Amino acid sequence: MRFALINSGLGLLATASELHRRHPEADLVIAMDPDGMPWGPRTPQDIASRSLAMARAAVSYEPDVIVMACNTGTVHAIEVLRAEFEPSIPVVGTVPAIKPAAAVASSVAIWATVATTASDYQRQLITDFGGQAAVTAVACPGLATAIDAGDQAATAAAIAAAAKRTPCGCGAVVLGCTEYELVADQIGVAVPGAAMFGSAAAVAAQAVRRVASATTPADPVDEPATGRLHILLSGREGELPQAALRYPQGRELAPLASDRQAHDPQPGAAHAQAEVPRLRPDGSDLSAS
């Protein structure tokens, strides 16, 4: 089993970690976009273009499912990805966990990026799934960028600022950006008494279900005890960013990358033959020049 995950930065680590815990034998292909991050300020068309380039590079590793482990990417690129890859490869998106949070708390805060907070998409989610809860949108400028950089001081400052804008007595905080799940414990300390609601567990479960529904049961084979981690950085093979090691999920996954060369498929495999694209900042392919 092989899962491909896409995000501009480290936000995919939370879902990748969940998938590894559920299926430690599965391979993971994580595709990040350091050349184009953050995606939030980019146009929807640019985000879709870059997401598609990331997915095409990841698909050369023959994944069983593609996971858009990014809220912004899901909003602007999920339909483009599904149009290209489904039904051959299922595509799973990420949606903030507003519904379960509103089911258990009368006061809910949705922490998200500035762009997501201002989006019609989030406003519609609140209308559709907020129920009877009082839902407050809390923009968190700079938080995702600080997390991606592994900047602990900037992360703490951004969390403290967002906590001040969160209503007193808030019973639940929805982590509306996948990066925020990497510092959920810190956010919980800053908003005492509030339950944290991320998306990683639900997205991982859906990815596993989509694989099961899309594949035909095969005869049992000897699976490796532990899968491998393949890393793509703006379409190029690379190493796990050092900032990832600041977070438990990154440290959990790092050993999977250390011996991937010894276990990679032989050169006849599709990904060994694929030409990985090199991207310009606008998402276009340098190799097409």
Explain how this protein is built.
The protein has a 6-stranded mixed β-sheet, with helices on both faces. A 4-stranded parallel β-sheet has the order 6-5-7-8, sandwiched between helices. It has 289 residues and is α/β, with parallel strands linked by helices. It is built from 13 helices and 10 strands. Helix 3 links the parallel strand 3 (65-68) and strand 4. Residues 265-277 have low confidence and may be disordered. It has helices at 12-22, 44-59, 71-85, 98-104, 114-117, 120-129, 143-149, 152-164, 184-190, 200-214, 248-258, 260-263, 270-273; strands at 2-6, 27-32, 65-68, 91-92, 107-112, 134-139, 172-175, 195-197, 229-233, 236-237. The protein has 2 domains: 2-94 and 201-288, 3-Layer(aba) Sandwich (Rossmann fold); 98-198, Rossmann fold (3-Layer(aba) Sandwich), CATH 3.40.50.1860.
Q: What is this structure, in a nutshell?
A:
The protein has 289 residues and is α/β, with parallel strands linked by helices. The protein has 13 helices and 10 strands.
Could you list some keywords that capture this structure?
Rossmann fold; 43% helix; 2 domains; 4-stranded parallel β-sheet; 6-stranded mixed β-sheet; alpha/beta; 289 residues
Named CATH topology of the largest domain: Rossmann fold
* Mean of residue pLDDT values: 88
The whole-angstrom Rg is 19 Å
Terminal Cα separation, in Å? Answer: 35 Å
Largest sheet: 6 strands, mixed
Helical coverage, percent range: 40-55%
* Count of discrete structural domains: 2
**Strand percent estimate:** 5-15%
Structural class: alpha/beta
Q: Which residue ranges are poorly predicted, with pLDDT under 50 across at least 5 consecutive positions? A: 265-277
Q: Based on the coordinates given, report the CATH architecture of the largest domain.
A: 3-Layer(aba) Sandwich
